[in-house]
Amino acid sequence: MADITHWADVVADEVLQKGKKHLVATGITPSGHIHIGNMREVVTADVAYRALLDKGAQAEFIYIADTYDPLRKVYPFLDESYAQHVGKPLSEIPCPCGEHKSYSEHFLEPFLVALEHLGIRPRVYRADELYKQGLYTDAIKTALVKKDEIAAILQKVSGKTPAEDWSPYNPVCNVCGKINTTHVTGFDLDAETVDYTCSCGDQGTVSMKGGGKLTWRVDWPARWKALGVTVEPFGKDHASRGGSYDTGRALAKEIFEYEAPFPIVYEWIMLGKEGAMSSSTGVVVSISDMLKVVPPEVLRYLIIRTKPEKHIKFDPAQPLLNLVDEFERIHSMDEPGSYESRLIGLSHAAGICHTDIPFKHMTTIYQAAGGDFDRIMNIVSRSGYNTDNEKCIKELADNVGNWLEMYAPPFAKFSVKGELPVQAASLSDAQRAFLSSFADILAGSGELSGEDYHNMIYSAKDPGSELHIMMANTSGVDPVEMTVEPKDLFKAIYTSVLGQQSGPKAGWFLSSLEKDFLIERFRKAANYRP
Predict the structure, then answer these.
(1) Beta-ladder partners of 60
(2) Which of 11-25, 128-142, 260-274 is predicted with the least confidence, judged by mean pLDDT?
(3) Position of motif 'KMSKS' region (predicted)?
(4) Which of 107, 209, 240, 470 has its CA 20 to 30 Å from the CA of residue 17?
């Protein structure tokens, strides 16, 4: 690649024109499984934050969980008992599994664990706590006083006319606990209270500290000012003309007297042929599930290699291996360009495990070892890889095992047969001659690498090679006249070991198995006459 400036550095350069001190913010509503489509926002924020630090900025990075948003409906992954909670703030709804303090924590906690695995460590805020602590109180007062001005701005920018009884603030009903069924009837700035009526029949008063929340289009700009946000990524839905960023920018300037943060607009991650990921439709691959099957630095690479304004196609099956291959190829460059070096640098993060074992090779090692970690370590050592960091090797092995179980296509899977497969009966005389000769050469050789095995098999084409001559002698054919097709030799290997005509990369595969096992198996296959 030519030396290109990475998009995160372009963003940082533009942001730094506005000053040296910055707060990068990101936030997601934990209403369902937080998926890798959501991850694009957080990784985008993280790399922008890191680029700012690299350029000498005084930067901070925060994550706001919108835990005070209402549950909007009974999603497909919930049982019907949650119908009674629709309209209540997520932080005030029981946990679906009973192991977390609330509905919002049920989805938020595994996401925060996933962020740690990705080397992303923002300061975390929960919206319900911010409201209850009074962070929004001044903004609530301003919004209630300037209600008509806000409504006029919303109509002008979005083209939508707010209802006559619209309010920028939604109280939480003291009786039914819902936040989307109340209407403001009055407020007291000195007492910091809001009066309301609710469709459930209740009339009451709530404190501005936690008794409700601002509507989304008002909450967002209020948050920018309250926290001091200067940079924020968000999805293209918010960036549409007249959308929530346009209204937020106008409200920030005209109501809250604050400059809107620098926007980083990102496109969606598309899941295979199923379209954009969405928690509400169930088209998701959760970050937690994805971290079970692929190293975290590869997930970071998936996001940072593509400019935010371009959509990303993601398929956790066979195409995932192509993604890993691409990452490993760049990672192993002897003299990477500045752009490639930046890609790798932003993919890494403190605390992320890394080994020199290719993912694809581990798929072979794992299956050759039957998933047994002691055997995996023996093969890794025999293959010449560094075995000092056993923890990272275990993580990679677990990734591969989970990928094979959850997403791998059938053709990527294999199992070494404990006994000679019956399919060996189909071997031709030439294939038997190859296996017999190959076994004899192995018996007289030392330990072989994957490359040694690969080269030895291909040498069978050369009339002057030891393997070619031995095959000819076994077959009673003049070596010069004998022709050899390597594809038939590979088929003989896979048939005798796996009981199928294809398999993983032969060199890696053979080097993953004990040489004595191969010698015995090839000789049995060569002599098998059912």
Answers:
(1) 23
(2) 260-274
(3) 276-280
(4) 240
